[in-house]
Amino acid sequence: QKEVEQDPGPLSVPEGAIVSLNCTYSNSAFQYFMWYRQYSRKGPELLMYTYSSGNKEDGRFTAQVDKSSKYISLFIRDSQPSDSATYLCAAFGGSQGNLIFGKGTKLSVKP
Amino acid sequence: DGGITQSPKYLFRKEGQNVTLSCEQNLNHDAMYWYRQDPGQGLRLIYYSQIVNDFQKGDIAEGYSVSREKKESFPLTVTSAQKNPTAFYLCASTPAGNQPQHFGDGTRLSIL
Description:
By secondary structure, chain A is an all-beta fold. Helices cover 0% and strands 55% of the residues of chain A. In chain A, a hairpin with a 6-residue loop joins strand 4 (32-38) and strand 5 (45-51). In chain B, strand 4 and strand 5 form a beta hairpin. The N and C termini of chain B lie far apart (35 Å).
């Protein structure tokens, strides 16, 4: 079993829809969780960074971590065509290990 | 502006040739990383360095080499021993501690 699992999609939604992107992880030592957005032919850009369980909101983006079920989510409200990209979840346990990435979910928001 | 600069953006390698990918950061970050990204495979760690003059192998180090002579520079050499080098290579850095990694815009390496 991979340490961080992510459905690769692709996921296609109409403009204005609420998008839910999800990952599961297997290592209970993971404490730090990230979401990156990657446009085609570009490097990943950090969107959200959370520690332990809970929610974090930044504009139209909300990151949610449920450590009891080892589940991490990213919600995008009022999705825009400019949100079309690949979204990567990532996790690590702090100073004990390296960052582990999911394979990414490709999102397309249609006008 | 602070950031991570990777060069070149595109690189072509001939059979039996070694090529070097450049990664420079002006963020004053201690740790630097090299990843390989293939379609459908996600990011895989090649090498990382926590401090100058020290580096460790990642999950797929075979056929690659690195050096860390300066804090701001972490070049990656793809050697002729790497039989399938075609991929998108990403460099990242982070300050010490439990901080997220920041990425450059990558180098796409192809075989001629």
